[in-house]
Structures are given as C-alpha cells and as structure tokens.
Amino acid sequence: MLIDFHKRSKPVDVNMHQDKTKVMFNDCVRKSTISVDGKVIEEADSYVYSGRHPRETVI
To answer: How many other CB atoms sit within 10 Å of the CB of residue 56?
Structure first.
C-alpha cells in the first residue's frame, strides 16, 4: 500500500517525506522490511493521534 501510494503520488507532485514515514504491523501480517526508492522505512511500535494513544480510555 505504501509503495503504491508513493508510485501514484509522484506524477501529481505529492511527495512522501520518507524520514517521517513509519510502518506498523498487526497480528494478521508477517513483519518484513519495507523500502521505498531503496530507503528502508522505520517500524513504529505505537503512535499518538490528537495528543493521545488510540487505546487510552477517556474518563
């Protein structure tokens, strides 16, 4: 999906910032090395969305 996005975005001048791009895997997908234009994309263990981890409970 990431490689497809990269290929389709180039002709319309939308650039992916490869240093800021990270990948995550879930239990349904086997982990593998992802590279775009020869640059390995770093794996992330978690992420923060709107200042919160997605699994945080709001009380």
So the answer is: 10
